[in-house]
Amino acid sequence: MAPYESDDSTTGATGTTGGEADDLRSGRRTAARYVVPVAVVGVAAATIGLVPALASSGDPDLPKITAQQLIDRIAQSDVEQLSGTVKITTDLGLPDLGGLENGLLSGATGSAGDGSSADPSARLTELASGTHTLRVATDGPDRQKLSLLESAAEYSVIHDGKDVWGYDSKSNEVYHSTADDGAAKDDSREEPVPATPKGLTEEALKSVDDTTSVTVDGTMQVAGRDAYKLLVKPKQSGSTVGTISVAVDAKTGLPLKFTLTPASGGAAVVDAGFTRISFAKPAASTFDFTPPKGAKVTEDGDHGQGLESGKSRGDGARGDKGAQGLEGFPGLSGLAGSEGPGGAKVIGEGWTSIAAFDSGSKSGLPTGSADGAAGPAGDLGGFLGSLGDKVTGKFGSGTVFSTRLVNALITDDGKVYVGAVTKGALVKAADADH
C-alpha cells in the first residue's frame, strides 16, 4: 500500500512525509534506551487478534474502513517530519509515598542514585505517574528531540547524528552519549519512545492472534485532524485491561491519541494524545545543542549506568512472544529472559500472560540487609508487606502488590509472578507452578 500523504491544506504543513517521527526512536538502540517506557500495556497486549468491522458513521464523515485495513495503515505510516505537543496522563493507582515511588521506579530501571540528574533513564520515570506535557520534534531517523515541560524548568533529550544529549535546565546538568553506528544498522526498526501515541500503539499491536477483539468504532478529531477510532478489547477473562482506544490519523495513518481504560473502570490508566501537530519540517536549530556555560557534563559510562548499560536492563525481554511487552512496564524491564536467579518464564498467553521468576531470596520480601536482621534496614520487608495483601494457596503464602493495571505476587519462598492480570489469576499461576 502506498504511503499516505499529509494534507497540507488542513494542517498548514509544508514538509514531506516519510517514516514516523514522533516516536523519536532515533533509529538507534542507544537513544531508545534513554526512555523509561510507560507503555504499560506490554504484557497485556502481547498478542492481538483481529475482528474486522466497518467503521460506523460519525463526525467527521470518513470512508468506511475495516480494522485490518486500519492496522495496515498504522503499520505503513511513514511520517518522517513533524513537531507538536503531547499531553500524557498516567494513573496506575500507586500509593502516595511523597515522591518515593519515582525513586523506586528509577532504581528499578537501573539508574544510578548518584548519577546525573540529566540521565534520561532516571528522569523520564516521571512519566510513570501524573500528567505531563511533552514537546516533540523529528526530522528523519537521525534527528529527534523530546522535551518534558515543567514549572519554570524543562528537561530535554536531543538526538542529532551521533550525539545524544540529556539536559536538565533546573540543575543545569548535561548527560552525553554517542550513538553506535553498528547498533543503528542492526536495529533500524528499534521500538519508538512509548510515551507517544505511536509508541504506545505499537506496543499494543506487536503480535496478532485470536485473544483479542479489534474493531473500528467510529471517527473523531484530534488536534484538528480527522481520525478513525480503533477499539481493542481482550477476549480473555482475568485481565486487568478493559479497552484500548487509538485515534488514527485518516491521512497519514499516524496514531494521534492512545487511551487505555482498566477493566475495573474509572479514569484511564494511560491517556496520551497530541494537542497540536504539524507535519512541516522542523527548523534545523531545533536539534542544535551546546552545553550551557557552567553546566556539569556527565559522559556516558562515568557512573557505569549509561546507554550501553541500558542493554542489560531492558533488552533481555525482547524475542519472547509471551512476555515481549515487559519492557513497557516501569521496573519490569529485562525480567523475561533475564539471567538473574532462577531465570524467568512466561505462564499463559495473550492478555493473561504472567512473567514468573525466582528472586533468589528464600525469605520472600527483601529485608534490606544481607542477613535479614531486624532494625532500620531489616524492617524493609515489613514496610513493603504493609503495602500489599496477604494471600494463600497450594503454593503456600505470599503478598500481592496491586496497581490499577499491573499486579505482582511475591511468595514467601521468593518466587515472583507479574502481569496485567487479577490477583486471583496470580494465585492460580503460582499454584500451578509449585
Tell me the CATH architecture of the largest domain: Clam
Determine the structural class based on helices, strands and strand pairing. Answer: alpha+beta
Strand content: 25-35%
Q: Give the CATH superfamily of the largest domain.
A: Lipoprotein localisation LolA/LolB/LppX
**Unreliable residue runs:** 1-58, 97-113, 182-193, 303-342, 369-377
What is the average of the pLDDT values?
73
Alpha-carbon distance between the two ends = 50 Å
SSE topology string? HHHEHHEEEEEHHEEEEEEHEEHEEEEH
- Secondary structure: number of strands: 18
How many domains? The number is: 2
CATH class of the largest domain: Mainly Beta
- Please give the share of residues in helix: 10-25%
Q: Would you give the CATH topology of the largest domain?
A: outer membrane lipoprotein receptor (LolB), chain A
Q: What's the shape?
A: globular
Largest sheet, spatial ordering of strands: 7-8-9-10-11-1-2-3-4-5-6-12
Layout of strands and helices, then pairs:
Blueprint: H1 8-11, H2 29-34, H3 67-76, E1 81-90, H4 100-108, H5 120-123, E2 130-139, E3 143-150, E4 153-160, E5 163-168, E6 173-178, H6 181-186, H7 197-204, E7 212-222, E8 225-234, E9 241-249, E10 255-262, E11 270-278, E12 296-299, H8 310-314, E13 344-347, E14 354-358, H9 380-386, E15 389-393, E16 396-402, E17 407-411, E18 415-419, H10 423-433
